[in-house]
Structure formats: structure tokens, C-alpha cells
Automatic annotation (TrEMBL), chain A:
The keyword tRNA processing does not apply. Residues 87-122, 123-158, 171-206 form the EF-hand domain. It comes from the Eukaryota. The gene is KCNIP1. This is EF-hand domain-containing protein.
TrEMBL record, chain B:
It comes from the Eukaryota. Residues 143-165, 511-530 are annotated as: Disordered. This is A-type voltage-gated potassium channel KCND1. GO terms for molecular function: A-type (transient outward) potassium channel activity. Belongs to the potassium channel family. D (Shal) (TC 1.A.1.2) subfamily. Kv4.1/KCND1 sub-subfamily. It is a multi-pass membrane protein. Component of heteromultimeric potassium channels. Identified in potassium channel complexes containing KCND1, KCND2, KCND3, KCNIP1, KCNIP2, KCNIP3, KCNIP4, DPP6 and DPP10. Keywords: Ion channel, Ion transport, Membrane, Potassium, Potassium channel, Potassium transport, Signal, Transmembrane, Transmembrane helix, Transport, Voltage-gated channel. It comes from Amphiprion ocellaris.
Amino acid sequence: MCPPLIVQFISRLLLLFHYFFTLSDDDLEMTMVCHRPEGLDQLEAQTNFSKRELQVLYRGFKNECPSGVVNEDTFKQIYSQFFPHGDASTYAHYLFNAFDAGHTGSIKFEDFVTALSILLRGSVTEKLQWTFNLYDINRDGYINKEEMTDIVRAIYDMMGKYTYPALKTDAPKQHVDAFFQKMDKNRDGVVTLDEFILSCQEDENIMRSLQLFENVI
Amino acid sequence: MAAGVATWLPFARAAAVGWLPLAKKTMPKPPVDNSSRSDEILYVNVSGVRFQTWKNTLDRYPETLLGSSEKEFFYNEDTQEYFFDRDPEMFRHILNFYRTGKLHYPRNECIQAFDEELAFYGIVPEIIGDCCMEEYRDRKKENQERLAEDTEANEASDAPLPPHSTSRERLWRAFENPHTSTMALVFYYVTGFFIAVSVIANVVETVPCRPPKGSVKDLPCGEKYQLAFFCMDTACVLIFTFEYLMRLFAAPSRCKFMRSVMSVIDVVAIMPYYIGLVMPENEDVSGAFVTLRVFRVFRIFKFSRHSQGLRILGYTLKSCASELGFLLFSLTMAIIIFATVMFYAEKGTKGSTFTSIPASFWYTIVTMTTLGYGDMVPNTIAGKIFGSICSLSGVLVIALPVPVIVSNFSRIYHQNQRADKMRAQQKVRLARIRMAKKGTTNAFLQYKEDRAIGDRDSDSTALCVKNRSAFEHQHHHLLHCLEKTTNHEFTDEMTYSELCMTESVGFRTSRSTSLSSQQGAQNNSTGCCPRRARRRAAMRLANSTVSVSRGSVQELDMLHVKTTSIPPQTRSSLNAQADDLKLNCGEQDFTAAIISIPTPPANTPDESLPPSPAPIPGILRNTRATAYTHDTVKISSL
């Protein structure tokens, strides 16, 4: 037998014994990542919230996430609590990406508050832009059918199994087709931001419902 | 996670904007939220320790006291805070629950105190966080067991018999608690003696005795003195049968009794004898008959009625049933594995004792329990290797469940010790309670005295009255009203028991006197002086009755000599209601009339107040004199 093989074998055996006897608990190392937001004044300037509202928001946020950041799993967990009937994890994933504007993998308080500011206190254009970003999963500036289908399917997943009328398997596809029918003006198979904003502005229902969530905070 | 959900709801609602372009139908209107948006700080004062928290924090759990409008009852307008007269240390944990959403159980607090606080604040204990839930459950179970034991101990043994118990109930009680009467104790010792005799006879009859003349072989004593042993056995079985039938008769629930362990042991102990009587003497069944005789040894289990240690052991084994089961199961597994291995390892050798796998079972058991008889020994190397592994693992497998069993036994044993100590302390406690009751009843009588005096002389009233609190005054007034309502008065135990004595003994003779004194009784008022005169007359009358009552009267006399004030007008009234009171002489327990006010003893308030005038229509005048003595006079109600 070749000596290198023997040496390799023995070294592996020794490593095994080492692990066996030392029972290393290196996995106990704590990853304490803590993030503090920018000052209150800065946030007030950047968003459309007053100081008091920011205070209330931050207190709630800090209570739930003492470390100051929300990672994707926690985000999914939180969002799933509101939709116990179905599976909200896919949609939460897309939502997380929409909130996490800087693609850092975690939502900090600033991201949280910025998004909320747009959604609750922003102009119609800003809201629609945010929604377009949500739908545009790969951030290429276009919404194609696959992306839309994914989104719609994720939304239908949140409904769960027990719906009335019963959910048909091609319901998402039909929904997407109807959407594209309305939004895709030039019939090129993709929806751009301008097309999207234009089409939404033409629809009265959408315009009216955009005002619904103004007084959530 | 109510807190979490509430915080994130605005975010979830905001994120719903993402659905809007996709919506096929119009969205519903949002709910109008009229509540004030601004978050305010609430001040909560708990016994002087001020806590401050946001209103939103408390609103997270609207089904609790602090989260609902119930806290408005505790709002103090002057200080603009919510005041609770509770433990501030516990409140800290309660408030942390609101803040973090998790309820923790503080390990150094009493479990009952904690439960009470939770109940007060309207928080269900089920939401205790996982970190503390196990500890909470354990402590709670322990506490409940302890309380159950205490109540059992209280109810069971030394409580006096209810007055109208039938002979059956008395018999049952005598069986269950031999200390209560001498007869029961005698019976207890007699049965114990006969159990011992029976067991010793069983043992001795197999010992070889000297053979009778003309024979060489040694005979067991049982066959040599067959008649003697038979008579002894018969006597024992007769006693046991009698005891069993008596118990069966006296048992309050016969089905339950017949199913209990002790009765099964009794039956098993006496059955073989009767079966032996019934069975014919042929050879075929006598083999089975001999087996039955083995069951006679179960009589030794009858000792568990006499020995508490045995009962504890049995209870321990019962409570460790799962550990024992695990031990058995793992041993069985190991036995089968090792037996198979040893059999195949030793299969080749000539003259091997491992003839089959079941035969190897014996080897495995003997080795695993480290007995090592040496009747079966492996010869091959493989056999020896596996044999050593077998013995090493045997030690481990047996040692594992043993600490659990031992700790269980220790816990149960200590609990039992505690129960005994509690019983001893109970007597002291009862004595203390009685003293407290006396104090309060004396206070009440004092009050009545003062009122009586006050009717005539207002100056001395002031002196007597100033030492009592307003609460006492009102309470005494209440008791007085009750007396007036029922037209009965509170009195003392001694007077009452004397009444009983005169009733039972001097019944006939006092009847004549009662008629004459009755008029006197009816003329009685709450004044003092008429009583004194009547008392003298009553005493003269009483002295003419049987000597038994004389003793008590003289006792009363002694008391009165010591005092300077109003003597009781006992005799006349006692004699007056002769026939009615006769009914109640059997009653042994008196409940205290009056709650102790300044010193709150635990049990008394509930028992005392409502006297039931119905069963005892007689009027017992109270012994006012004794109120001034500080002798041990018990006041009892009716």
C-alpha cells in the first residue's frame, strides 16, 4: 500500500477521534448582528411619517426583532401568521425581495419604513412603481408571463385548499391572461413600467382602491 | 404570538397594495378606526411600586384584566394611576408577559401565590412559555398531590365520627383506623398475630423432623404432626374468613372493596384451604392441589395492612411501572441477542452445554445479572469474547433504570414521613384554633355584658367599649341581632355538656324541679340581678338531683366564687328544656360560635356563623361569668 494513503487514512482516523472525544461545540458561537437605524430626524426627512409615527413603528419593530434586522425566514413566518389557511411563504419571498431594496438579504428598519412610507403615504405613481417592482421578479424592467404567473400562483397559494368555488388548476393562468389582456398595450408579451402605470390609471377600481390603505398607521 | 401579530398587521395591510392591480373585484372598505392613535403612557401603582407602560402594550391582550376595561375599576382619580393592592414582585412578571408575549414562571415563588396572581389578572396559565412550562407543571402537580394527601389525612383518620353513624360505618372505621377504639386495636393485633402464626406454620411444616419409631427416613414435620398443623391452619383460615366477611359487610362500596388489592390478597390467602376441603383425595388432582398450597404463602402480604413500609414499597413499584417495564423490555432484548450469539459461537464445540437458544437464555441471564453460577461456560474464543461483552452490557442495562426507581421511592417515602408529621402537627394546630375561638367568643360575651351594663349605667360602658375596634362592635352587634332573630343565645361548651349530663343521668329527678324553675326561666330578662337570685334557686334545685350533676354544679360554683359578676342562670334553663335537649347529647363536636376577629385563624369563619336553631330548640343561656374568668371555657354554637 502506498504510504500517502496510509498517512491519509490515519490522519482521518485521528480527526474522527478528535471530534469524538472533544465533542466540540463550536456551533454554539453566537452570531449577534445588530443594526441601528439612522437618526429619527433623517428618517423623518426621508419618509412621509411624522416623528411620533416613526417612534411607534420602531418600538413595535424593535420589540419583535431586537437585533434590528429581519431575515427572510422570520419574514415568512410573520407573514404566514396572517394567512393560516394557505401557504404564504412564496408570496412572502417575493414581498421580502420587494422590501429589501438593497438586496442585502435582510430587512432593516429603514427599508421597512421606506416601503411603508411609499405604500401608505406615497403618491399614486410611487405606489404603482412599487407594485411593478414587486411583480418584476428578476428586476429587468419587464414583467413577462412567467413572472406574473409565479406571482399569481403565489397569491392563490395563500388562499389554501378550501375555497368557494373550488380552485381550478388553471385559475392562475386565466387570471394572468386577463391581466395581460388589460395591461399589455402593444401586445409584445411583456409589460413595461409605463404600460403598467398607464393601464392602472385608466382603471377606476384600481385608483379608488389605492386610497384604501392610507390610514393604516 | 398575539403581540407579534398586532405589531405587524399594519405592514401586512400595507403590503396588500401589491394585490390591487390584480384584483378582479373592487376591494371592500377598510374598517373605520375611531380609537385615538396617539400612544399614551399608563401609570400602574402596585403596592407603592410604580410601573409605567404604553397603553398599547396592555391592549395587546384584551381578554385580561389589564387589557380590558376592568382595570378602570382600579383607577384612582386623585393620583391619575391604576392602583392594585397586590404583590409588586409578581406584577413584574405579569407585566413582562404583556411586553414580551411570553409568561415566565419565577422559580423562587410559591406556585399557589403565582396561580392566584394569574387568576386575579385574568391570565390563563397555559400560555406560560416553553422555557418555564415544565417546571411550572412539576411544581403544580407536586403541590396538588400534597394538598390531596393533606385533605385525605384530615378526613381519614382522627376526625370524630359523625353523630348518626350506623354500626356498619363504625365497623368500617374501626377496620380502617385501628387507633380509634380499643376493640379495633385488639382485633388488629390478633389478626397480625395469626398471620405470623400461619406463615411460620407454613415454613415449619416442611422442616424435617425426627422420624417416628420404626422408620429410617426423615419426615417433614408437616406429615408427622399432620393433625396439629391442620388444626392450626383451620383456625387461621377461620379467623381470616371472619375478618374478610366483616370487612365485606362493613365496606361502604362492596364492589370497590372486592376489587381492591388487599381484598384480593385476602381471598387468595384463604381460597386454597377451602378448595382443599372440597377437592377429593385422588391422585390426579392432588398435584394441582399441592400447587394451590403454594398460594398460602401470599398470606404474608396481608402484613401490608399492618406495615406502612410495605405499602410504600408497593406504591413505589406501582408508580415506577414504566421504568420497570423499560428495564424488562431492554433486558429481554439483550437476552435474546446474546443468547443467539452465544449459541452460534459455541455450536461447534463438543460437549457444549449450549444445547439450544432457550438453553442459552439461562446463561445470558446469569451473566448479565453478574451472578455467574458457572454451570454453563463458553469454551471457544469467540464465545468468551461475546460472553464478556454480555456481562459488561448487563451491568449497564440494569444500572440505568435503578436511579429512577430509587428517587421515586425516596420521594414517596419522604411524602409519607411528611404525612405523619402533619398528623402530629394537626393536634397542635387544632388546640391553637380552639384557643383562638375561645378568645373571640369571650369577646362577644364581654360585649353583651357591656351592653347589659350599659343599659343601666352608661359610664362604665364607655370604659369597656373603648378597647374594641369599630369592626368588632359591628360584628358583635350582628351576632346579637342573630340571637334575637332566632330567639336563641350563644353559649359555652361546658354548660352544654353539663346539660347533657344532667339530662342523661338526672333526667327523672330533675323533671320535677324543671317545672318549678320553668316559670323562673320564662321570666328571665337580660338583667343581671334576677339571674343571680334565680341561679341560687336553681343551684339548690340542682343539688337535689343526682350526684353526677353535683360535681359539675360544684365546678360551676367554684367558677362563680372566683368571679364577681353575673353568674349563669344555667340550671333552670337547662332543666327547662329537658326533653328537647336530650336528642343532642350524643353530639360530640361543637362548632365555634363566633369568628375570631383580631386574630384570623384559618378555619373558623366558615364554620361559625349560622347556627341552626332547628335541631336544638332548647335555649341555653350563656355563662356570663365565665366571660370574665380567663379559664378554659369553650363557647359553642348550636
